[in-house]
Design goal:
336 residues; alpha/beta; seven-stranded parallel β-sheet; three-stranded parallel β-sheet; 14 strands; elongated
């Protein structure tokens, strides 16, 4: 290993060597004493050149060979196998047992396919239908037309509520069929006179005539005829269905009161929109006085006419009218 000598030490050594080189300078023995019998150094002796202050070369660091890197082979990308989906077993469909169809008794109407199964029918339901049929009159007239018509509608709905087998247990069913045929083939009413024309209006002189007039109009057959009141008539405060009960069955003819009075109109029970002696009028009502009390929960009420689209001439209303119709968006029209 090479060591560099400090500059001060080197200078001291050179100075010592120069002193030894002077004439008469004693020589040093190997053990450091003065050497005897050594020849003196003459002036001819050349001075040893002082070595230049040369820095000892620093050996270059040997580069250690880098170890060869051994690359570890990457493992192959092995795909994980995906298990195949297993189909779930489909449960077998078990058909529900079909109820046996029982044949209808002889003479009974078979139930229609897809019809709702009727609720159990009691003997009371059968008896109720029987009682309604017993209330039917033996004959249909224009005077009882509206009462009979309403009862026939009620019997029809009650019979439809029965099953085919129960209908055969209703007695006197032939009376119902007979009255139903009679009301559909009813001829023109027999008033106290006239033929319904302007020259010979139907003459109304009784309470029966007035009811026949109402039924004739409300059946959609006599609304455009001409009528004349020949006597004062008292209805006895009975419930009254208006003449011309709706727009469909409106009165469009002529009714001449002849200066007479219809009194005792009251206890209005009609559930329609038009309540009055006349419900909906597109014709002419004249020379008539009406007295009584009327009350309704419907939207329109009037002593003589509930809703008028025609003419009312020389008429007087002495009818107290009351409407209990109320609620948001509900209009009420009450008048004479």
């Amino acid at each position: 290993m090479t060591h560099s000598i400090p500059r001060r030490t080197l200078a001291a050594l050179l100075a010592a060597m120069m002193l030894l080189a002077l004439p008469g300078a004693p020589a040093l023995a190997a053990d450091g004493d003065t050497a005897e019998n050594e020849p003196a150094v003459t002036d001819e002796t050349e001075a040893t050149p002082v070595p230049e202050d040369t820095a000892a070369p620093i050996p270059e660091a040997a580069e250690s060979p880098a170890p060869e890197s051994t690359a570890t082979p990457a493992p192959e990308d092995t795909a994980v196998p995906v298990p195949e989906p297993t189909a779930e077993p489909v449960p077998e469909v078990t058909a529900e047992p079909t109820s046996e169809v029982t044949a209808a008794p002889d003479g009974a109407e078979p139930a229609s396919i897809g019809a709702d199964v009727p609720m159990p029918i009691s003997q009371g339901d059968i008896d109720r239908v029987q009682n309604m049929i017993n209330r039917l009159p033996d004959e249909v007239t224009w005077e009882n037309y509206e009462d009979v018509s309403a009862l026939l509608d009620e019997i029809f709905r009650a019979l439809n509520a029965l099953g085919p087998g129960e209908r055969t247990q209703v007695g006197n069913i032939d009376k119902y069929e007979r009255i139903k045929t009679a009301i559909n083939s009813l001829g023109d009413p027999s008033f106290s006179g006239g033929n319904g024309t302007a020259d010979a209006p139907y003459l109304i002189q009784t309470k029966g005539d007035l009811k026949s007039f109402r039924s004739y109009v409300n059946a959609g057959r006599g609304g455009d005829k001409c009528y004349r009141l020949g006597e004062n008539i008292d209805l006895g405060s009975e419930a009254w269905t208006p003449i011309g009960k709706s727009m469909t069955y409106a009165f469009s003819g002529t009714f001449d009161g002849g200066g007479h009075t219809i009194s005792g109109i009251g206890g209005i029970e009609y559930a329609g929109n038009y309540v009055g002696l006349f419900g909906c009028n597109f014709g002419t009502v004249k020379d008539l006085t009406v007295k009584g009390v009327m009350e309704t929960s419907g939207p329109c009420i009037g002593g003589i006419v509930s809703e008028n689209h025609g003419a009312i001439e020389n008429c007087t209303s002495a009818v107290s009218v009351t409407s209990t119709n109320s609620g948001a968006g509900r209009a009420t029209y009450a008048g004479g």
